[in-house]
C-alpha cells in the first residue's frame, strides 16, 4: 500500500536553473514540476507544499524554527515528510529539526549538488530516494535523515565535505545508516545517540568563533560589543585555545555570557585534559562549558 508523503520545498540548487547572464538562480517552476513528476506518483501519494524558495545561505535559525512549526502542523496527516533544501546549510537545518521535532515519523532531507540545467543533474534521483526512505517502515524512529547519492545518513552526524561532488555528504568515522538499492531500502545500523530539546522559541544572538593559528581575542570583544547572549568557540583538538583568548573569555563569563567550547575537528569529544593557559581544563575552571 502506498504511503502518504508530504514533500516540503525550501529552495536551494535543487530548485534552480541557469539564467544567462547572471548564473544559477531560483526557478519558480520547481513546485509545479514536482506535482506532475510521474516517478513520484508511482511511489507514494504525494502532496507538495512550498515553505520557501531561497538559496540556502539565506537560511537562518528563525526560518529553521518556522520550518519546525510547519512540519508539526502538517505531519499528523501524513506517513512521512521529505524536505528539499540547499546543500550549503542543509546539515544545520537537518540537525536543528532532529533536535527539536518530537515526531517518530520519518523526516528526510534531500538536495542537489547540480542545478536543473546541468548535465547529470542529481536532484530527481535524490528526491525519489528520499520519498522511498520516507515511505519505508524501518525509517520510523531513526531521527531526521539525510538522503543524497543513494545513501542514508543521520542528520546529527552528516557533513558536507566537498563543494561540488554529488557524494559530498558523509558521516565521518561513524559511517552511513543505510543505502537505497533499486529493489529496496537497506538500513545497516541505527544511531543510538538521540538528543531532544523541547522549545518553542530560538535565541539567534549567539556567535560562533572558529580558532585558527594566531587568533586573538578581538572576535570575542566584538561579540560582547554586540551583546551576544552566548559565544560558541570552535577550539583546537580536545578544547584548547591560544593564551591570547583567555582574558577575553574571562571577560565574557564575568558578563554572564555563556561560553561553550567545542572542537573544530569533525569527530571526537572535548575533554578538560590540558591545564596550560588556554587548555580545556583551565577553560572549564574559568566557567566555560565543555
Structure overview:
By secondary structure, this protein is α/β, with parallel strands linked by helices. Helix 3 crosses helix 4. It has 2 domains: 184 residues, Rossmann fold; 81 residues, 3-Layer(aba) Sandwich (Rossmann fold). It has an 8-stranded mixed β-sheet with strand order 4-1-5-6-7-8-11-12, with helices on both faces. Strands 13-14-15 form a 3-stranded parallel β-sheet, with helices on one face. A two-stranded antiparallel ribbon has the order 2-3.
Write the layout of secondary structure elements.
Layout: E1 4-11, E2 16-19, E3 23-26, H1 30-35, H2 38-43, E4 45-54, H3 61-74, E5 80-84, H4 90-100, E6 107-110, H5 123-134, E7 145-148, E8 151-154, E9 159-160, E10 169-170, E11 178-180, E12 185-187, E13 206-210, H6 218-225, E14 230-235, H7 246-254, E15 258-263, H8 280-286
Parallel strand pairs: 1-4, 1-5, 5-6, 6-7, 13-14, 14-15
Antiparallel strand pairs: 2-3, 7-8, 8-11, 9-10, 11-12
Helix pairs in contact: 3-4
For this entry, give a set of tags:
290 residues, alpha/beta, Rossmann fold, 2 domains, eight-stranded mixed beta sheet, three-stranded parallel beta sheet, 8 helices, 24% strand
The biggest beta sheet reads: 8 strands, mixed
Query: What is the name of the CATH class of the largest domain?
Result: Alpha Beta
Read across the widest sheet, the strand sequence of neighbours is 4-1-5-6-7-8-11-12
E-strand count: 15
Number of helices: 8
| Classification by helices and strands | alpha/beta
Which overall shape is indicated by the principal axes computed on the Cα atoms?
elongated
- Percent of residues in beta strands: 15-25%
How far the N terminus sits from the C terminus, by CA atoms, comes to 48 Å
| Assembly state (oligomeric) | single chain
Give, in order, the helices and strands.
EEEHHEHEHEHEEEEEEEHEHEH
CATH architecture of the largest domain: 3-Layer(aba) Sandwich
Helix content: 25-40%
Low-pLDDT runs: none
Mean pLDDT: 95
CATH structural fold name of the largest domain: Rossmann fold
Radius of gyration: 21 Å
Amino acid at each position: 500500500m502506498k504511503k502518504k508523503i508530504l514533500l516540503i520545498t525550501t529552495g536551494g540548487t535543487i530548485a534552480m536553473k541557469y539564467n544567462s547572464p547572471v548564473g544559477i538562480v531560483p526557478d519558480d517552476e520547481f513546485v509545479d514540476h514536482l506535482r506532475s513528476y510521474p516517478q513520484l506518483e508511482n511511489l507514494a501519494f504525494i502532496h507538495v507544499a512550498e515553505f520557501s524558495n531561497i538559496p540556502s545561505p539565506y537560511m537562518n535559525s528563525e526560518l529553521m524554527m518556522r520550518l519546525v512549526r510547519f512540519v508539526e502542523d502538517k505531519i499528523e496527516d501524513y506517513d512521512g515528510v521529505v524536505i528539499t533544501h540547499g546543500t550549503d546549510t542543509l546539515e544545520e537545518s537537518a540537525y536543528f529539526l532532529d533536535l527539536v521535532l518530537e515526531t517518530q515519523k520519518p523526516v528526510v532531507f534531500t538536495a542537489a549538488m547540480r542545478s536543473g540545467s546541468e548535465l547529470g543533474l542529481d536532484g530527481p534521483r535524490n528526491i525519489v530516494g528520499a520519498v522511498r526512505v520516507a515511505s519505508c517502515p524501518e525509517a520510523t524512529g531513526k531521527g531526521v535523515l539525510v538522503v543524497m547519492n543513494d545513501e542514508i545518513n543521520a542528520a546529527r552526524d552528516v557533513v558536507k565535505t566537498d563543494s561540488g561532488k554529488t557524494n559530498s555528504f558523509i558521516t565521518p568515522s561513524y559511517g552511513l545508516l543505510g543505502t537505497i538499492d533499486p529493489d529496496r531500502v537497506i538500513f545497516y545500523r541505527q544511531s543510538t545517540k538521540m538528543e531532544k530539546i523541547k522549545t518553542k522559541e530560538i535565541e539567534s544572538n549567539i556567535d560562533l568563533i572558529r580558532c585558527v593559528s594566531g587568533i586573538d581575542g578581538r572576535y570575542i570583544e566584538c561579540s560582547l560589543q554586540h551583546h551576544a547572549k552566548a559565544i560558541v568557540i570552535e577550539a583546537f583538538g580536545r578544547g584548547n585555545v591560544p593564551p591570547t583568548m583567555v582574558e577575553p573569555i574571562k571577560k565574557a563569563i564575568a558578563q554572564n555570557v555563556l561560553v561553550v567550547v567545542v572542537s573544530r575537528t569533525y569527530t571526537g569529544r572535548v575533554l578538560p585534559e590540558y591545564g596550560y593557559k588556554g587548555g580545556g581544563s583551565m577553560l572549564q575552571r574559568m566557567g566555560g562549558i565543555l
